[in-house]
Structure formats: structure tokens, C-alpha cells
């Protein structure tokens, strides 16, 4: 149920709650609403920014940044991942904004296969000169490392940043029943 400010004002007018309680309740509901995913202008901008960042790192690294070589790809991916990790902490701890924090945590996980690929190229494991954008066209043992490290990074991010408020209500309730 969505509560409007006018409903709280009406409750205060009828004497159900005091005007001070109405103000305090409205402040509480407004603060809680910031963490609730929705189709608001701010949230759309968050998602659009995350989409642009993820798209840029996955698409443009594929198209043009092979020129940097393995070391360059690895260092760029790790640098961006560290910046995104810092932003995740910043948005959660200082700003109390779980939605952009979740987007930054997702961005960190997206960068993992790129960093692993860059490290593999740097170590000479991709000596057949296939670019990153073509790594999936052939079944190859090098996938296993990329996928395993990415799954491990995703598991660590899910464990470390339990952003349950961003989950749909039924799934959130199930997790809370199981893990308190």
C-alpha cells in the first residue's frame, strides 16, 4: 500500500495522530523510499548510468582496447573495479543509497572476466591472437578460469553486500526466514 502525505495530514486532522507524528512518519517513509527500487526519474538515471558503464567496458574493451595488450586490459579492468568497489562502500556507508551501490557491485563482477582475460593474455596463455570479443566462439579450457573466478567474485559480492532491500518482497521474506 502506498501512503501519500495527504493521508497522513488527514489522519492528523481527524485526531488519529498528532501533526508532529504526521511529520515524523512522513520523514521516515520518505527516507525508506530512497532504498526501494521503482520507476522514478532518479532510479532510471542510476540504471542508465550502470548500463552505460557496463556496456562501455564490455563493448569498447572488445572493439578497441586490445591495443593495450594483456597488461593494459588487466590494469584498466582492475583500476575500474577498485574504483567501483570504493563507490559501492561510499554509496552504502556514507550516502545510504543501496541502489547505486548494487549497480557498482554488479559493475565490479562484470569486470572480472575482462581482468582475467587480460591477465591470461599478459601471461601468454592466449598466444593464438584471438581478441576478447571472439573468446567465446571456440570451446576452450581458458573459459573455465574466467567463469570460475567470475562466479567466485559474484558469490563474494553477494555475501559481502547483502542488499536484500533490492530484492522482490517474496524473495526477501524467504531469505529473512532462512537467515534471520
A few lines on this structure:
The protein is mainly alpha-helical.
Distance between the termini: 24 Å
Q: How many H/I helices?
A: 7
Would you count the extended β strands for me?
0
Rg calc: 22 Å
Label the overall shape: elongated
Structural class: mainly alpha
Helix content: over 70%
Q: How would you state the average pLDDT, rounded?
A: 82
Q: Which sheet architecture does the biggest sheet show?
A: none
The fraction of residues in strands falls at: under 5%
Q: What do these coordinates show?
A:
The structure is a single chain. With 180 residues, this protein is mainly alpha-helical. The protein folds into 2 domains: 1-33, no CATH class; 41-179, no CATH class. 71% of the residues lie in helices and 0% in strands. The chain contains 7 helices and no strands. Helix 1 (5-13) packs antiparallel against helix 2, helix 3 (41-63) packs parallel to helix 5 and helix 4 packs antiparallel against helix 5.
How are the secondary structure elements laid out?
Elements: H1 5-13, H2 19-33, H3 41-63, H4 69-94, H5 98-122, H6 142-160, H7 169-179
Main traits of this protein?
180 residues; mainly alpha; 2 domains; 7 helices; elongated
Amino acid at each position: 500500500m502506498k501512503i501519500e502525505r495527504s493521508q497522513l495530514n488527514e489522519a492528523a486532522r481527524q485526531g488519529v495522530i498528532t501533526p508532529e507524528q504526521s511529520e515524523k512518519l512522513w520523514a521516515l517513509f520518505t527516507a525508506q523510499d530512497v532504498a526501494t527500487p521503482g520507476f522514478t526519474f532518479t532510479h532510471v538515471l542510476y540504471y542508465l548510468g550502470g548500463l552505460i558503464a557496463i556496456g562501455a567496458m564490455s563493448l569498447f574493451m572488445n572493439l578497441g582496447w586490445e591495443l593495450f595488450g594483456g597488461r593494459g586490459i588487466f590494469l584498466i579492468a582492475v583500476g575500474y573495479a577498485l574504483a567501483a568497489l570504493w563507490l559501492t562502500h561510499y554509496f552504502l556507508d556514507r550516502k545510504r543509497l543501496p541502489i547505486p551501490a548494487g549497480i557498482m557491485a554488479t559493475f565490479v563482477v562484470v569486470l572480472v572476466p575482462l581482468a582475467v582475460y587480460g591477465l591470461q593474455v599478459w601471461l601468454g596463455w592466449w598466444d593464438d591472437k584471438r581478441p576478447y570479443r571472439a573468446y567465446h566462439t571456440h570451446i576452450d579450457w581458458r573459459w573455465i578460469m574466467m567463469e570460475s573466478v567470475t562466479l567466485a567474485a559474484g558469490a563474494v559480492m553477494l555475501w559481502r553486500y547483502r542488499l536484500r532491500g533490492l530484492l522482490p518482497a517474496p524473495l526477501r521474506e524467504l531469505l529473512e526466514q532462512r537467515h534471520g
